[in-house]
Amino acid sequence: MERKRAAVPHGAITNIPVFIKKADNFLLTDVDDNVFIDFGAGIGVINVGHANDKVVEAISEQAHKFTHTCFHMAMYESYVQVAEKLNKYTPGDSQKKTYLINSGAEAIENAVKIARRYTGKSAIVAFEHAFHGRTLLGLTLTGKVSPYREGFGPMAPEIYHLPSPHRPNIHTLSHRKPSEYTADFIAEQLKTVVPVSDIAAFIIEPVLGEGGVLPIDTSYLQALVTFAHDHNILLIADEI
Ligand SMILES: Cc1ncc(COP(=O)(O)O)c(C=O)c1O
User: Does position 178 have pLDDT exceeding 70, yes or no?
Assistant: First the structure.
């Protein structure tokens, strides 16, 4: 811990004060040989378990072929294969395309760029309690001042927030029943926030993560989709 404190900035926060030396499937072993059940799973990205044989084999096979070319310099087929698979399994009938990038924040930034360019509008509406990343735009979209945004201003322009539909009990949605969520209700909410004609996109977590691991009320999401459709607004689903 002393070495971590000296070498790594405080921003790289950790939940439990242990250093892992190895892991097998769902079990983590720390440097003192304590064994833990891994409920965190790298925040849900190790769903096939640690050191999964197939994953280890695929990484090893690829490492023997070539390490990295940067797809923008020289292409390779596996990039296209992954894109094809993701396009196939993403729900909906419309044509899909996949762009692979380095991080969630970078994905969000690019989604906002695409929405602005496509619609020719600039405002983005996010939701309170959401988390969208640690870059300037990601932070601005994040609907939580403390601890994420505090002291890092000024934030990026043209970002607005609505109350979180995942946590209606603590905000202005408290008196609403799910069936009352309509496109008109969204219009009412926006009246004091931003002109509808300026909005390029809504960005929302279908399952709120950092804000409490809460699924959205689907009738709110449906109302948002209808409203977005009617006003040439895109909907960005942050499922990172
Ligand atoms: C919902 C959501 N959006 C964006 C991000 C940012 O992803 P990254 O840390 O890979 O930049 C996260 C990270 O946890 C996230 O949970």
Answer: no
**Residue 180 confidence (pLDDT) above 80:** no
**Residue 43's pLDDT band (cuts 50, 70, 90):** confident
Closest ligand 1 atom number to CA of residue 108: 4
The predicted pLDDT at position 170 comes to 53
Please give the angle made by the CA atoms of 225, 122 and 87, to the nearest 5 degrees: 50
On the question of pLDDT at 36 being above 90, the answer is yes
Residue 210 CA: nearest ligand 1 atom is: 16
Note whether 202 and 235 are within 8 A (CB): yes
Q: Which CATH class is domain 2-64?
A: alpha beta
What is the rounded radius of gyration, in angstroms, for the C-alpha atoms of the chain? 21
Q: Output DSSP code: residue 75.
A: -
Is pLDDT above 90 for 132? Answer: yes
Rounded distance between C-alpha atoms, residue 125 and residue 161, angstroms: 6
Would you list the domain boundaries of the chain?
2-64, 68-100, 102-237
Look up residue 87 and give its two tokens. Answer: 């396009």
Decide whether any atom of ligand 1 lies within 6 Å of the 168 Cβ. Answer: no
Instruction: Point out the ligand 1 atom lying closest to the alpha carbon of residue 130.
Output: 1
Residue 201 near residue 167, CB atoms below 8 Å: no
Protein residue with its CA nearest to atom 7 in ligand 1: 104
What's the Cα-to-Cα distance from 170 to each of 65, 126, 138, 163, 204, rounded to whole Å?
Answer: 54, 17, 24, 9, 18
Instruction: Tell me the CATH number for domain 102-237.
Output: 3.40.640.10
